[in-house]
Amino acid sequence: MTDSAAMAGLDPAVLADVLRLAGSSSFDRIQDQIRRTGGCSDPIHLQGATVTRDRATGQVLHSYSTDSEPGGRLRVACGNRRASRCPACAWTYAGDTYHLIRAGLVGDPAKGTPDTIRDHPRVFATLTAPSFGPVHNRPGNRPCRCGTRHDEDAPELGTPLAPDTYDYAGAVLWNNHASELWRYFTIYLRREIARRAGLTQREAHAQSRVAFGKVAEYQKRGAVHFHAVIRFDGPDGPDSPPPAWATLDLLTEAIKAAAARVAVDVPPAGEQPARVLRWGAQLDVQPIGAFGDGEEITEQAVASYVAKYATKAAETTGTVDRRVGNKEVLVLLDVPEHPRRLISACLDLHPLYPERKLRDWAHMLGFRGHFSTKSRRYSTTLGALRQVRADYRAQQQREALGLPDLDAPEATTLTLAHWSYAGHGHTSGESWLAATIRRDIQLNRETAREALRDEPDLNGAAA
């Protein structure tokens, strides 16, 4: 499709702004800025300047100011992880999460994890929420309890069979306490490992470590569940092998026992009864196979799966991805009935449990935890991955300007910078341009992947 064909269906106001942009003298630079952000949907606008000087002579080697930019502003990517907010930045976040999880599975010395961790026992565990009432589902080859065989994308999937008796309060309170359930699970897991090894916790800790990386995902019914890579390490973390007693079977049994022990008490409030929150019965623990050799769950599949859900949140259930102040706005936003009832339950429960901040997290159906977390020694960090990318781009810029490498002995430069926030977002025409650039970048990536996949190997077969 040509640009003119793509523009033909635009809203007249958007089309007018696109034509204004195309006719402006700064169009090329605006387009270049948007391309540098990867087609970010909501870029941050900065104003400021940088000056690079020779430390010894004080000579100015390079200077830059946003005064020369269109509108006196520089656009930088927003960095939002939500695909519903910014697909471009979410793609970057998903890629970083993929490399973080993969480094903890196959090893990557450059990211601080040795290749030998591939020999450590590790599993992919899924911990789910309990039932809050029967919902429409797809139980294998059998019809749903309503008597219908639902399609995979049927809108009623995950919604209650009897909405008036569904425990909406219990569902949002469970989501709200899910992070505490996970915290207690990690505590009990170490205790169960020690008990099964016939050691005290201190002795077990001196001989082994447990590392994990996890991501939260919303089920269609709006309940959070966690996917986690859990790995046995030696006493020095990933750099040392686990002891002989730290087997895959021991880790699997300890996970099941720890999940069964977790209980979080919620006191009564108003008409709400006291509750004991627990994990659901659908606990799944599967070994992760190296190279996919004899195991259903492979390293590649696990890293890709976790990365996929790192950029998704409650909006996958039909709710909104921004905070909600009152119930009336849910009608205006046309939120479906089931997520609307969950959000309403959060707003109704907030006065009863003010310390739980249910009103602030109503759009998340009560969940207030981090979507992607890891233990300290699992692998690298997202911050470290972002820094590597920033350093690489900075080095590219220095080479283009003819400045010495910062790590070189002869590097004697000093860079002073001052930046201030100047707004965010696009005009309607810029938004269309950003979306077009993002689609082009995505198409180029997919084409490159296909070419790599079809490239013949040394034996002449397709890779």
TrEMBL record:
Organism: Streptomyces vulcanius
Protein name: Replication initiator protein RepSA
Pfam families in alphabetical order: RepSA
